[in-house]
Fold this sequence. Notes:
Elements: E1 5-9, H1 13-27, E2 30-34, H2 37-47, E3 51-55, H3 63-72, E4 81-85, H4 90-97, E5 103-106, H5 114-122
Parallel strand pairs: 1-2, 1-3, 3-4, 4-5
InterPro entries: Bact_response_regulator, CheY-like_superfamily, Sig_transdc_resp-reg_receiver
Protein name: Response regulator
Domain Response regulatory: 5-122
Amino acid sequence: MPTKRILIIDDEETIQTVVQFGIQMSAGWDVLLASSGAQGIVIAQTEQPDVILLDVVMPAMDGLATFKALQSHLATKHIPVIFLTAKVQTAARRQFDGLGISGVITKPFNALHLPEQIARILHW
């Protein structure tokens, strides 16, 4: 199987580092990093990752706005998006269900198990 390319869009550098480490150590996948929704959209358009891990709570452009922008571009609407979030309340989950995202991974998470979770969500 060819190496997967994962784009992480998260404004917290610590989360980026932990997720990148877990994915690279456990699966050997390539990891792209973006610190904002706007930066993530540009990277997604140019790099065409296999999946995007998207933080929900970010300043300026939150995860919901970023997801909607990704869905509105022909170059990125096909890329699966998995939300990374600490929001586990039922109301938040219902809001996510109607969006068309591929899945949700709840923070905190075990970074070394992320590739397994991603593969299960996307049926890889």
